UniProtKB/TrEMBL annotation:
It holds the Pfam family DDE_5. NCBIfam families: transpos_IS701 (NF033540). The lineage of its organism: Bacteria, Bacillati, Actinomycetota, Actinomycetes, Micromonosporales. This is IS701 family transposase. It comes from the Bacteria. InterPro entries: IS701-like, IS701-like_DDE_dom, RNaseH-like_sf. Residues 7-214 form the Transposase IS701-like DDE domain.
Amino acid sequence: MDAVGARFGRPEPRRRVRDFVAGLLAPLPTKNCWTIAEHAGDDGPGGMQDLIGRASWDDAEVRADVRDFVAARLGHPDGVLLIDETGDLKKGVHTVGVQRQYSGTAGKIENCQLAVHLSYASPAGHTLIDVALYLPKSWIEDPMRRAEAGVPDSVGFATKPQLARRLIDTAVAGGLPCRWVAGDEAYGGDPHLAAALRDQRLGYVLAVACSHRVPTGLGVARTDQIAADLPPRAWQRISAGNGAKGHRYYDWAFITLPLAADQHHGHHWLLLRRNRTTGELAFYRCWSPDLVPLHHLVAVAGRRWSIEESFQAAKTGLGLDQHQHRRWQAWHRWTTLVIAAHAFLAAAAATNTTSSGNLIPITVNELRRLFHALVIEAARRVADVIAWSIFRRRHQATAKTSHYARQALREP
């Protein structure tokens, strides 16, 4: 809270933000302004709703403070910026950015929001640091819908790779120490993003499709055809990182792409990964301003999976996708405070990297449980629980009276 408190001009919103983040860290069945306000001991949800919807503060500035916080505690010269998107399933058509579109989270076309996230990974840990909401063209071209959701006039259509580029530019301009960028096929297939990364001298390991074509000494070829023509001696067994059940071993190969050289004067490779059990293949376009060995590229490719761990922790433990806000500003504020909570956990977990005996180091999820049980829950009062039971029943009674009165106007 010391890192972001200056963004809130008065002590009341600073305390409310602290209580809001504490509510996100709590094991509530669902997380929304009602449940978080009850957890904080407020006498109603109005204060939390005001913080998310109406109070005066800039969510972009808070995310900048979170980025600086992460740089100070997890920063490393070989840090990796990870880009990926996640979908939040929603009902109706009024929530900002929602439409029927493909969601990798659901694995099919669903009514959902999509957001591009930027995560930071280093030897000390990994955490989410920034986000950009994807607005489909159907929203961009509908002024009435935009106005109802509070979308700023300055927001135009941008593809997911364009949003990712903006997030990366912001992180680099903010001084976040990093050397690499990793992402999936949605970003590896965009040549403009790759060129922008080379221009910033950022190495990258970006996944591409099996149909992706690369220039080789024998002409332009598909990546899957290159894999089929490789001799057995070209493959090496290398771990992509430590997993909960052991090393993540795959067969790897890479070939140099000298014909892909451009004005950036770096080194291009095609990296290939083969599952040792199923034989399934994956492909990556790689670039670095300096020569690096194969195992270094493999390590960067393996880092990409950490953003999936961040998504899981933020959704299951911090309520990233449980918001009930339809408007642009409220969505960004909710997501920003979830990012802040996740960064706190990642930084705190990074301070305890060794354990005695046969214990593993404290994980983000375990730290969240300990922090709530030992710090947050210990400060709550029985009176708060009773007061909220009375508040809910009074609110429900008022709503019931209003429903019956409205019905009496229509019915004989």
